[in-house]
Design brief:
Elements: E1 15-16, H1 17-23, H2 30-38, E2 43-44, E3 47-48, E4 55-56, E5 61-64, E6 67-70
Antiparallel strand pairs: 1-4, 2-3, 2-5, 5-6
């Protein structure tokens, strides 16, 4: 089974929050990403983010489990 390419294309320089959490290994599944985001456990640039499809850009800072992760790809 192959996984869909979740890397942003050169046309759009963004990545969905839920995809970032999976790609970074911060969650194991999309369901877990949905649960963590909608329960207010994830912050984006210091503010709680509850939208799974929130677009991230390089340099944004995502925090989960008290650890900060800078968005890169």
């Amino acid at each position: 089974m192959t996984l869909p390419n979740t890397e942003p294309s050169s046309e759009r320089d963004t990545l969905d929050l839920q995809d970032f959490l999976k790609m970074a290994g911060l969650v194991d599944t999309g369901g877990e990403a949905k649960f963590r985001i909608q329960n207010g456990e994830v912050t984006l640039n210091g503010e709680t983010e509850t939208r799974r499809r929130r677009k991230l850009r390089r340099g944004d800072v995502v925090s989960l489990h008290g650890l900060e992760h800078t968005v890169t790809w």
